[in-house]
Each structure stands twice: as C-alpha cells, then as structure tokens.
Amino acid sequence: xxxxxxxxxxxxxxxxxxxxxxxxxxxxxxxxxxxxxxxxxxxxxxxxxxxxxxxxxxxxxxxxxxxxxxxxxxxxxxxxxxxxxxxxxxxxxxxxxxxxxxxxxxxxxxxxxxxxxxxxxxxxxxxxxxxxxxxxxxxxxxxxxxxxxxxxxxxxxxxxxxxxxxxxxxxxxxxxxxxxxxxxxxxxxxxxxxxxxxxxxxxxxxxxxxxxxxxxxxxxxxxxxxxxxxxxxxxxxxxxxxxxxxxxxxxxxxxxxxxxxxxxxxxxxxxxxxxxxxxxxxxxxxxxxxxxxxxxxxxxxxxxxxxxxxxxxxxxxxxxxxxxxxxxxxxxxxxxxxxxxxxxxxxxxxxxxxxxxxxxxxxxxxxxxxxxxxxxxxxxxxxxxxxxxxxxxxxxxxxxxxxxxxxxxxxxxxxxxxxxxxxxxxxxxxxxxxxxxxxxxxxxxxxxxxxxxxxxxxxxxxxxxxxxxxxxxxxxxxxxxxxxxxxxxxxxxxxxxxxxxxxxxxxxxxxxxxxxxxxxxxxxxxxxxxxxxxxxxxxxxxxxxxxxxxxxxxxxxxxxxxxxxxxxxxxxxxxxxxxxxxxxxxxxxxxxxxxxxxxxxxxxxxxxxxxxxxxxxxxxxxxxxxxxxxxxxxxxxxxxxxxxxxxxxxxxxxxxxxxxxxxxxxxxxxxxxxxxxxxxxxxxxxxxxxxxxxxxxxxxxxxxxxxxxxxxx
Length: 713
What we know:
Layout: E1 24-27, E2 40-49, E3 52-57, E4 60-65, E5 83-91, E6 97-101, E7 113-117, E8 120-123, H1 131-149, H2 157-182, H3 189-198, H4 204-208, H5 210-216, E9 235-247, E10 252-258, E11 261-267, E12 284-294, E13 297-307, H6 310-328, H7 340-343, H8 346-361, E14 366-371, H9 374-394, H10 400-404, E15 405-410, H11 417-434, E16 440-444, H12 453-462, E17 466-470, H13 476-479, E18 484-487, H14 493-504, H15 509-512, H16 515-518, H17 526-534, H18 539-554, H19 562-569, H20 574-597, E19 600-604, E20 607-613, H21 626-636, E21 641-645, E22 649-653, H22 660-670, E23 685-687, H23 693-712
Parallel strand pairs: 1-2, 1-7, 11-13, 14-15, 14-16, 16-17, 17-18, 20-21
Antiparallel strand pairs: 2-3, 2-5, 3-4, 5-6, 7-8, 9-10, 9-12, 10-11, 12-13, 19-20, 21-22, 22-23
C-alpha cells in the first residue's frame, strides 16, 4: 500500500484523505462524474458570462459562479486561455459542474501535483518541470544565495539587521527599474512574491528589532501618501492608519491611509505567510519602504513597519482627524431646483452628505441598499454617481471601486432580518479576511418603515452606521435606529438622493439634474420638469427611461445591474430606453386588460372600492409586479380605492388620508381569529390568516369606504 506524499501514512493512493485539499490535480478523464468533489484542479478559462466564468478542466467544463469569487466579477483579470486553479464543489445529476474559488493560483502554492485519471491517482509526470516549478526552483536558488549572505542564527539581531539594510536598497531599486519597464496592469500575486523575495524578508529577528531598525533609518523624511508619485524610487516614511490587511498568495498587503490618501504597502516573509501578524486594521503605524510604480499604480515595498503608541499615536491620530473633519464637511447645500420642500431639509442633507464623504475618506466601504423599483434604482444610481469618483481619487488601486462600493436592491423596499443577516455575514467575512472596516449602509427608497426595524437593529448591534434617504416620513419605530435620516413628504426618494449626491460631490452635479423627473409617475413638480429639459431630457424621454428602468428592475431583482442603469441614465441611450419602454408597455397593457376584466367593484355609502384577486387574475412570476400593477390601476380607474387581495395579504391604494391602524383595529374587532397585522410596509399592506380571507376582505371594504367618505366630507 503506498504512502501519502505529505504525511507518510498508508493510503490507497499517493495522497491520504486528510491532505486531499493540499495538492492540486490534473484531470485526465472525460466525464464530469469522474471528478472528485472537494479537490482542487488545474483548469483554463473558457469564457465569461454575466453570472460567472466557465473553466475547462481537462475535457469537461464547469462554472465558477460570481457568488463564489472573492472579488467582483468585473475586477477579475483572467483572460480566455489563462491557467487557473479551482475547487470542484459539486457534480449535479445533469452533469453540470459547480466550481469554487481557490486563493492559491500557482502550482507552487500547493504541496504536490497529482494526476486524477479514471484508472486512479498518480504523481504527475511533469511534476517539478512546469513553469511554476521552474520559477519556484529559481526562487529557491535566490533564497539560497541570500541565506549564504545572512548571519548565522547565533549572531546578534542588530548586526544582522544593519547589514541587510545596507545591502537591500540598491538591489531593490535595480529590480524595480527592470520590472517597471516591462510590466503593465496590476501586479499578480506571483509578481509581488518574486519582487518581495528579492528584498529582505520579514523575519522574527528583523521584526523584533523593528525599533532598532527604525532608529537606524531615522533620517528618512515622512511624506504624505498623496505625494508618492513624486517619490518613485525613493525610500520614504509614511505615518497613518492601517485600513486593511489582506494576505495574498505572495506578500501581505497593508492598505495604509493618511490625511491625503490610501496606498497599498506589500510586506513579504514568504509566499502566503502573514507578515507583521501583530499589525491589524485600525492600528496607527509608521512604515518605511521604497515607492514603486507598477502599471501606473503606486505601491510601497515595506522595509519596516512599527505600531505607534502613546504620544506618537495621538499626534498622528489628531492630525488625521483634523484633516478628515475638514475634507468630509460638505459644502453649503444648494438644492438642484427651486424647491421649498428640499430647502426645508438642507441641514439633514448636509449631515448625510458629510457622513458619506467621511466614510469614503476613512476607507469605510459604502453599501447602498435600495428599493427594486424605478425610484429605488434611480436614487441608488444618484448616490453611486457621486461616490465612485471619490473612491477612485482616494485609492491608488484601480479596482478600489469594487472593494469600497456596492449597490444591492431590496424587494418591497423593506430591510428585513433576512437581508440584514446576509449583509452582516458578508461584512463580518470581509473583516475577517481583509481586516476591512464595517461598511456604511445607505438606504434609498428603503429602510424608513417599521418593517425594517429588526434589520436596522441588527446592523446597530454590530456598529455599522446607517443613512436613510426617502420620499416619505420615517415610521417612529425606526427613527432611533438611523444615524442620519433625510426624508420629506410628497417627493420621491430620488429627489432626496440626488440632492444629497450633489452635496457629496459637486463635480457630478450636472449629471444628476435630470434624475428627479424620471422618478415621478405622475404630478412631477414643474421645477424638475424644467431641470430635466435643460439637461436634454424631455417628458417623453423621461417616461421612456422611467418605464425601461421599471422593467429591468423587475427581472433579476437581486442584481444591481450597474452597467445597464448607467447606460440608461447617464449615457442617455434613448434607443435602448425606447426599446425597453415598448416592452414595458406591451406587458403592462396585457396585464391591465386581464385585471380590469376581473375587477370586483363595490359601492359602500357612496364610496367605490375596486377589488382585484391578485392570486387568481395576475401572473405571479411575470411582469408587472403586484405593486406596480395596483399603482397603475389606481391612476387609471375612477374609483376611491383599489384593493389587491392575495391568499394571506392585501394591498391598498387610495388618495384619501388613510388611518391604517384604525382599520387594523376594526378588523381585529370584527375578525379576532384572523390574525390581522400591519407589517409596516412602504405602501398600505395588511397580513392575515388565509382561512379568514373573505371575512377580512368584507370588513376591510366597509372600513375603507367609511374613511374615504369621512375624508371627502
């Protein structure tokens, strides 16, 4: 019986069950069923789709879904034909292969290479002869040469550190000059590892002698991060806060922030091993290193990293806080249009804009959660338009916008425990993996109702700050769970969000002026009609954009659809808007025709209430959604109220002032066994037990008619 190549224990093949995931396999079979779930395989990129990447593993192809990536799909720099390493998670009954992400993306990061063939596993013939193996061999040779020059373990740490410091800069600069001439784009983990390996690795001795090394280079000038392009090739000193620490397959990369910007600083001990393990996010540090320019991005190769304490820490912290307060402060708010309603909340707008700006400046991720409606999508896009340029300005890394900004839609504009649990799980995972700060959550056309209380409370428990932007007053239940609240009645959330966005980033103000007009389905304030016209968006174009976004918001509502929304709103692709708007019209009219033919109009005390059985006379999984259908019925029908009733819930639309709690009380009195409840949704909605449906509906129509008649008297 063979022995495991790693631990030496007896096994059925060259690797034991315990160490299956420590090696990488080359697949020589031709059927998906011959793969072994849990193993890592070498593959090649076959192509991209909206939902992920197709990877060829030998003669079969699997899908690496975007949800399995450790970054956004858009920031993945793989090209078709690239060799990659993936984990096989599952083989479905139909032969589909579900793949998982591998943090190890070079052969040398695995502890062996085996062949997975239908006849069994065996050591790869080419093991030790691949490109990666050759690279590893050359690295080993380089390490051997360096080791020969290093002091024996018995020598004093101080002497060893001083000698290494004297030899290091010249060699590092020569290496850098050569690399800069030949490379383009973000350096890979392998490139970073090769570069760092030529510098002195961080060792326990050099780490322990950090303060002595610091004294030896005490004449290094401190420079602001924002000026590093002027110091390429120089060894400089930085002082600031560690934003995150992420471990790549090569070096450890610390994001360091000072009062002028953020920069990546690579520290290397050996491939995949955490350098300076005691340094974590939120620590204030002094870092010495050489400034390098790679593919037009600034990076610092760390030579010394020391945590600041006591007075030194207080001085840096105070300097950064003073600068941050000044930079984060939003300029005086000038509303986009002459609108008294917005003028009345300028103080709230200033507070929200300052909170958002501060989050960007202190490298806190911003997550926008918005309703999956036209108003929600346009409001979210307005905030995104303001934030992304600030993120790019603050961070040297080209993919920072994918790490520090995200936008995710919400069903029904409610942030419930399901949504909050997903967000908290994700943010805690990011903090664990990358030492990221907890994100700022910005809710647009969402989060202002009682139904969001539990979700907001969960964020509060973890200390994640919360901003709410909406076109309706917030329910009293959630007010205390919101750090910065900007709401106003009789305006859309987009109107509020666009004004906040203009205060966040005045440079994009002209990009935002047409957005409010798109978000109103009727009775658009004239000031915003005129503002859109000045931006080249007339009434018909605004309608097309409104309808196009409504249709796109319905399909795959869990996706942010960033690129499509940008095309519609900011590239003003009217041809695209017109085409999608036509689809919207056809689908809506077909559903309206069915609905109106099956309305139950009831007259009570002179009031007319139209009742639609949405369970029986709508297509559950097709456009339009119930909310939009009922909105359109209310606009078109000459009735006092519209009620959509399903199995165990009903929705109300009326222009009359509605006391929903009084209606609930009446229903609970008349049908005490029905379990009637107001869930606190954005639009009037009641829930009840399905068995009491007819009794609840009859009582509701009577109570609703009474309120309508009273309001009109």
